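A common beginner's mistake is to predict each chain separately and then try to dock the pieces by hand. The better habit, illustrated here, is to supply every component at once so that their relative placement is modeled jointly.
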Amino acid sequence: MKVIYTDSLVIGGGLAGLRVAIASMQRGVDTIVLSLIPAKRSHSAAAQGGMQASLGACVKGDGDDEDVHFADTVKGSDWGCDQHVARAFVNTAPKAIRQLAAWGVPWSRVRQGDHEVVINGKKVTLTEKADSHGLIMARDFGGTKKWRTCFTSDGAGHTMLYAMDNKAIQMGIPVHERKEALALIHEDGVCYGAIVRDLITGELIAYVAKATTIATGGYGRLYAITTNSVVSEGIGNAIALETGIATLGNMEAVQFHPTAIVPVGILTTEGCRGDGGLLLDKDEYRFMPDYEPEKKELASRDVVSRRMTEHMRKGKGVPSRYGDHLWLDIRLLGRKHIEKNLREVKEICEYFLGIDPVEALIPVRPTQHYSMGGIRTNATGESPTLQGLFAAGEAACWDMHGFNRLGGNSVAETVVAGMIVGEYVADYCGANAVNISTTTIQHFMKREEKKITALLFRDFGENPFQLKAEMQKIMMDDVGIFRNAADLEKAVEELKVLNQRAKRIALRNRISSSNPELVEAIRVPKMIKLAQCVAYGALLRTESRGAHSREDYPERNDRDWLKRTLTTWTDASADLPELTYEDLDVMKMELPPGSRGYGVDNTFHHPDTAKREQEIEALKRDNPGADRFELQEMLNPITIPDKFKGKNERIGRGFK
Amino acid sequence: MNDQGRILKFQVFRYNPQKKGDKPRMVTYEVTEAPGMTVFIALNDIREHQDPSFQFDFVCRAGICGSCAMIINGQPTLACRTLTSTYENGEIKLLPLPGFELIGDLSVNTGKFMRAMSERVESWIHDADADEVDFHRLEERMDPDVADQIYELERCVECGCCVSACATKRMRPDFLSAVGFVRLARYALDPRDKRSDEEFYEIIGDDDGVFGCMTLLGCEDYCPKDLPHQTQIAYLRRKMALVR
Ligand SMILES: Cc1cc2nc3c(=O)[nH]c(=O)nc-3n(C[C@H](O)[C@H](O)[C@H](O)COP(=O)(O)OP(=O)(O)OC[C@H]3O[C@@H](n4cnc5c(N)ncnc54)[C@H](O)[C@@H]3O)c2cc1C
Ligand code: SF4
Ligand code: SF4
Ligand code: FES
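With all components supplied together, the output reads:
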């Protein structure tokens, strides 16, 4: 049995995983990163739009600060997020972006003087202040009050990931590529690493560690059409679920992005609309202002996706052989802007659609994009139920996004969570030892070996590719943007059947080394379980919140549903997961539940909401001299490592 | 294109070094073309319906991550964004990218090569203060044009097309290659990197570096991100000649 010992094992080499590894290494903790692919190819590289941080350097960002970012994030989440975590996040994001600037990200910078932009379909001239020249620039994104999304032309994720991986290389952090974690090793409620398969040789290796961090990204590939990479299959979430101890949070919270191209589902960034692009219907009519007169195309993602779907249901979609779609129009931004700030979009249109978006309309449709759900953690990033297991990035439900995450807040989360969780991982490694028996390691190793051997020896059975396609279709058809009890019940039942069938997979290519069919056979049963968590969670949540939209329960129901879904799978032979709920405490909220300002507000209010509002009013009245920092400390004290506690400087405003 | 779709003929290199007794060979697969079909879609179709042992690498399938470079009808390029309709006679020949360790079939280990390249050119900001930077304060200012120029060179996706297209690399196994040159040029341009010209010279001032390059520019012709290899190589040469 091959065993590799380390202190901090990080599963995932995207932005979140690398940043956790860097934090561990900086603290002198022995660290190894595992990744399916070379780290720089992780899906973080695909983020084109940018990263939110309230630097407020450009003129349209004037007046921005942590408080405004906080309010946008909480509203965006439809009050489903953990406000302590959201607070820790917004306070740290400016530090994260400045550190990345020092590490080499060539953020686009403010240029003093006039520049022309398109706002609400019209050309407008903005004048940037001389004082701000050379500071980090920002663009507009959906659901934000200020221009807060910092970017590098159209390659924010790429430049961030390259800077991060280069930093990791500089520090000599080993990244073990083409390795897949198959199961977590745990004993007496403590996690000690993972059983890992070498994707080239097929060898199984036990990586034994004090702390294990899962940073494996999202689970978009549960859906047939998604903007996510082909490796965004949620395996990290599944192996946590399969411990029967760790919990997953809010798995039903799945985001659909308004503008992926038809048919392939590749994303055109929200930057298209942020920079002034419009949505048109089959009559080339701009319909969003009719639905959302205030925010129009730049309403929150979940809202725009639903409005587009509604509009298509009224027969206003453009018919095509791949079903109806709408148009994204960026022609008005002009060639120069598109070729500089939206070049990746232009390349995608040229290569995949054969059109030039400077002159032609882009066919788009809402498409699965982001997984708000994930491994439930507390504010330090550790699983509340499985000690020594941490999670960060899209794989985690750290829970700053609640039921809808804002564009630009995700790459920001990966880095900020990496910084914060990374410190707690290092603390944990300092305070704990590996107390695990060899027998336990062997037990997990044997179990995985047995599963693989069974697959290699079964003569007849199910085809894993076929099972996956069926699962993806069920999720698309019945667990999509608009949901209802009938569809969801059907999905839950059909997935149960798939779960059973997935126990009888047989292979045509029966070799244990490098074998794509075996990879699929190992992953598909795990993916089906995750799909069941999503579908069942969606069925039981009888309200609409953020991206979870029930046609049969259109109201947000704070009275009964201001809670987080927790999912476990304790009995491996059961055909459904177990769901419990964790209340969000209104009396601890810095921003009590209110209206997001879209459509009609038909919320069922929580009995504590009015009470908490009064309490906050009273507190403000009783502390007339308190500044915004002191008020926040009183209303929403946060857990955060000391080094991130300082105030952030802004141009023209200092540390106020 | 009609709805029926023509029959595409894929001639594909197959060899699994992990499998005892396996031999390199070319295998032909037929696939019915669909509208908008890319080589990514076609290869997955072959894997799912004809041969589940078929190895190749895709991640983003959007021309962004650099995973899927291979030789398509004689030219190195990104397979995921290559439309099958580009090839009029419907015959498509696929070979793994040369110059890299073969994992199996069309999958090569570009990751290992690129990590070694990054270590060799020390692909990071050299500034003792970068870790001490006080991130509570305003970031250091940067000329907006300089930031844009750095980004132009940082658009490389480490796909390896330039390496496979380079005649010098074929003769000199340790030749740094164009991907290393642009990476170095990117740091040489960056005011945050405090390395001197002499230090850069140490890395590329020999025949395995920029003086070995024969400027045949296969690299520029095949770079899917259109990086300006020619100007960068010329720039590095001038700069290094001054130090020499
Ligand atoms: C097209 C697109 C555009 C986006 N644009 C933006 C944007 O503009 N702004 C924004 O804020 N967000 C954006 N997002 C979201 C954001 O990019 C992601 O949420 C974020 O990058 C996820 O980072 P991560 O580190 O959590 O995971 P990833 O970058 O997905 O990395 C996951 C890592 O885990 C590894 N891995 C997975 N499973 C295993 C396993 N079993 N064993 C070992 N390793 C494993 C993979 O190899 C990979 O290294 C975008 C997303 C998409 C899809
Ligand atoms: S110019 Fe020619 S020799 Fe020089 S790196 Fe490019 S391909 Fe190689
Ligand atoms: S320079 Fe161009 S061809 Fe070479 S690795 Fe980078 S993107 Fe690929
Ligand atoms: S799969 Fe990412 S570039 Fe082709």
